[in-house]
Specification:
By secondary structure, this protein is mostly helical. It has six helices and no strands. It has helices at residues 14-33, 48-58, 63-75, 79-89, 97-114, 119-128. Helix 3 packs antiparallel against helix 4, helix 3 runs parallel beside helix 5 and helix 5 runs antiparallel to helix 6 (119-128).
């Protein structure tokens, strides 16, 4: 999925293209596939509170189990899954220091993973933990 105009030998546009490429493909997919996915995703509107209720009230997930699971996922390099678990169940433990520390660890790892390849993800992940992003130096 490289536009023919990029094949003409313009190396200065390759990097910006590759940085935005994934987001463009995702957006085109969403526009063409629609909201309802084959796995029933999008059919019902389940929110974070619903998922937190599932994990805590019905599956009995405790704060300690949540932190242990997030740390294990992070150790296995499954940062996106760990972040999703925190987003789904974190509202039930929003005042927990141990959950906040686990969240910080996961989002720092995600920032590290995407710092050189995806500035959009880097900025969003840094915002999740209120981490300041470095300012670009002016080209003077």
């Amino acid at each position: 999925m490289i536009p023919p105009s990029l094949l003409g030998g313009q190396p200065d546009v390759y990097q910006p293209y590759f940085i935005l490429r994934e987001h463009v493909i995702d957006r085109l997919y969403q526009q063409n596939v629609g909201y309802w996915q084959p796995d029933l995703e999008g059919l019902e509107h389940l929110g974070r509170a619903d998922r937190a209720e599932l994990f805590v009230d019905y599956l009995g997930l405790s704060e300690k189990q949540l932190v242990r699971t997030v740390e294990r996922l992070a150790a296995d390099g499954k940062y996106e899954l760990a972040a999703s678990l925190l987003e789904w169940s974190g509202s039930r433990f929003e005042h927990s220091t141990s959950v906040a520390n686990a969240k910080r660890l996961v989002y720092l790892k995600l920032m590290e993973k995407h710092q050189n390849t995806d500035p959009f993800k880097y900025i969003i992940y840094s915002g999740k933990i209120s981490e300041q992003t470095p300012q670009l130096a002016s080209g003077q």
